[in-house]
Specification:
Chain lengths: 396, 297
């Protein structure tokens, strides 16, 4: 689960990490008022108006504007609010900007990168830092990997101060600042707090890009990107309030709410499968035979008739679906339960497109019988390959 | 012969008093697995009633702790059906109690919990399978997990996979071709887990009764690429493979927590290329996993 920059900065502030003064707003007038207030309180007439969407690369896409004075901030807010912001992470359609963050301008001396992720190979949380702040870190990793310094964190010990110091000296954070000792200490404190935050907040990604050193030698987080581990949602009731459903695919959201795993794709063959691996493979085999899957849908191992009904209705209600392939290898999942769900959904919504069903495994005969007696026009398939070929042929 | 589980496995089911735990403990017992104990805190002293292959009732004692299950009932293997937020603690308890093999079926354990579990595994000889996996089966002998027993057949093909139903698909194809399995291991689809592909390939490589291996991987991470490197250097037996998710878009989690392509890394194409370069025969479609393996024999 992703959250916005302004929410991320609230999290950072709770851990004692310095962030600039800023306000979250949703209207142009509120943006102007926030700018006036910030200018009055900081005595600095530079403010930054930032689009709040979940994707990165907002600056390049025109979603971040540095303004001199409240009138300019108002103008920037007018331009950004409601725009369709396109970045390298949004896809060509972009994302509509509904929220803004107005923040005090910073006196930036240096821009650094700091990020934490779970390193699957090391099986540890990895803290990465680089002097190349403000750049796309994927690019830095690709072109100049030597510029990224990594420290793995022992889960029993947490980040050790010496590890944070190692990074501080490697990035030369004490150079060119009025009081090197103070800046190094602030930097180390920031990293320690960040590592603590990552674990306690159950993050799967946390990035500050850039983490800046100001002209006076202070260490300030200028951006905050958080991604939380959705497996830990049950122990973080506070996440519900951070969720911005405008940023999520409505169909995927609907699926999550009923315990289905669903991803929208660009094709026209709807798929209903049990198990993630088989669901991915079903997409692959459709493509192999020249078709295009409309979705990834895993109804899970222990789906009820209601869940299957819901899943099938989701596929049926999509305009782009020109055919449906049901591919079930019942282990825990019983074929008759799937069959009942399919029949219930089609009774409600009707069936206008070809339906190919492949059932295998537990209670397969019962399942086939339910489908036979339903009166629905169903093309049965002997195996996965047979089913995929029949499906592709019938939508062409 | 087989690997990991067999007639010597004496199993404690952690979470046996729950709906799923109880159902699958019984299914495993009906398959012939020695389930010697159950464990659920505050339910010690109760009895779980399961059935043998003939449907005859068998009483299984329930304990408060895994330690009692090991010391009193002689358990050496644990199978975990504890809900996600308590599952990591259940794994740690099984390791502490002296279980040699811990099989965790639970899906949805927070990654940070698994990072701690992996740290604990560094200090013990105990092996963890999963989490978020179907379990392990040695056909005709011992089933510990949720896979449908009847699709399996005793034989000489080792099976290792990240996915449950895709494993069933492969096993179903093998059995239909008359190719039985030595042991089938579901290592699970989580980003941080217990045994990986290489660990399992090593076991099969050293098992005299495994003649060939089929491995099913998927997008996300680089475990399949590391496995390919290992196979190239060490594997003495033929290996067939399949990688799921060739059509998956970047940045989207495909059901499994670990199945996500990020920053252009972890794609099916790069994994297939690495496996083929290591001499693994990769099935062109998931419908041809069985015949691909057969062509190597």
């Amino acid at each position: 689960m992703n959250i916005h920059e302004y929410q991320g900065k609230q999290v950072l502030a709770r851990y004692g990490i310095a962030v600039g003064q800023g306000e979250f707003v949703t209207t142009v007038d509120a943006a102007e008022a926030a700018a006036k207030k910030i200018i009055a309180e900081t005595g600095n007439e530079i403010v930054v108006v930032k689009a709040q969407i979940h994707a990165g690369g907002r600056g390049k896409g025109g979603g971040v504007k540095v303004c001199k004075g409240a009138a300019a901030a108002k103008e920037a807010a007018e331009a950004i609010l409601g725009m369709q912001l396109v970045t390298h992470q949004t896809g060509p359609a972009g994302q509509k900007v509904r929220r803004l963050y107005v923040e005090q301008g910073s006196d930036i001396a240096r821009e650094l990168y700091v990020g934490l992720v779970v390193d699957r190979e090391a099986r540890r949380v990895a803290l990465m830092a680089s002097t190349e702040g403000g750049m796309e870190i994927e690019k830095v990793a690709e072109e100049t990997p030597e510029k990224i310094i990594t420290e793995n964190i022992d889960p029993l010990l947490g980040l050790a101060p010496f590890q944070a110091r190692k990074i501080a000296y490697a990035l030369k954070v004490g150079e060119g600042v009025p009081e090197p000792k103070k800046t190094v200490a602030q930097f180390v404190k920031t990293l320690m707090a960040l590592a603590d935050c990552f674990v306690k907040e159950d993050c799967s990604l946390c990035e500050i890009n850039p983490l800046v050193i100001t002209g006076s030698g202070d260490v300030v987080a200028l951006d905050a990107k958080f991604n939380f581990d959705s497996n830990a949602e049950a122990r973080h009731k506070e996440w519900a309030a951070l969720r911005d459903t405008d940023e999520e695919d409505p169909v995927e959201l609907e699926a999550t709410e009923v315990g289905l795993s669903y991803v929208s794709l660009d094709g026209n063959i709807g798929c209903l499968v049990n198990g993630a691996g088989l669901a991915m493979s079903t997409m692959d085999i459709i493509k192999h035979y020249g078709g295009e899957p409309a979705n990834f849908l895993d109804v899970g191992g222990g789906a009820t008739k209601e869940m299957v009904t819901k899943a099938f209705k989701m596929i049926l209600s999509s305009d782009k679906v020109k055919g449906i392939f049901v591919n079930i290898f019942g282990g825990i999942m019983q074929c008759d339960v799937v069959a009942e769900g399919v029949v219930a959904a089609t009774k409600e919504l009707g069936l206008q497109v070809p339906l190919v069903v492949r059932l295998e495994g537990t209670n397969v005969e019962k399942g086939k019988e339910i489908l036979r007696n339903s009166g629905l026009k169903i093309e049965p398939a002997d195996c996965m390959g047979d089913g995929a070929q029949k499906m592709v042929a019938s939508v062409k | 012969m087989s690997v990991l589980v067999g007639p010597e496995s004496k199993v404690v089911f952690q979470g046996i008093t729950g709906k799923a735990g109880g159902f699958h403990a019984d299914m495993c017992m009906r398959y012939g697995t020695h389930v010697v104990a159950g464990c659920t805190p505050n339910r010690g002293g109760e009895t779980f009633v399961g059935h043998d292959a003939d449907g005859k009732e068998i009483n299984v004692p329930v304990y408060n702790t895994v330690k009692e299950a090991v010391e009193i009932a002689g358990a050496n293997t644990s199978c975990i059906f504890v809900p996600p937020l308590g599952a990591a603690d259940a794994i740690l308890e099984a390791i502490d109690a002296g279980c040699e093999l811990v099989i965790c079926i639970t899906e949805g354990i927070p990654v940070m919990d698994m990072v701690k579990v992996r740290r604990r595994l560094e200090t013990t000889d105990a092996k963890l399978i999963g989490p978020n996996c179907p379990g392990v089966i040695t056909p005709g002998s011992c089933k510990i997990g949720i896979m449908p027993g009847h699709i399996h057949k005793p034989g000489k093909i080792g099976v290792v996979s990240k996915s449950g139903t895709l494993t069933y698909e492969a096993v179903g194809q093998l059995t239909a071709l008359g190719l039985g399995q030595s042991t089938c291991i579901g290592i699970g689809g989580d980003p941080i887990a217990g045994l990986d592909f290489i660990d399992c390939l090593k076991l099969f490589n050293d098992d005299p009764d495994t003649e060939a291996v089929i491995m099913m991987g998927e997008i996300g991470g680089n475990a399949e690429i590391l496995a390919a490197e290992w196979i190239k250097e060490n594997m003495k037996k033929p290996v067939a493979g399949f990688i799921a998710g060739g059509t998956a878009p970047e940045g989207k989690r495909m059901g499994h927590a670990g199945a996500i392509i990020s920053g252009g890394k972890g794609t099916a194409a790069e994994k297939i290329a690495a496996l083929e370069a290591a001499g693994v025969k990769v099935a062109p479609t998931p419908a041809e996993m069985g015949v691909t393996l057969q062509s190597l024999l």
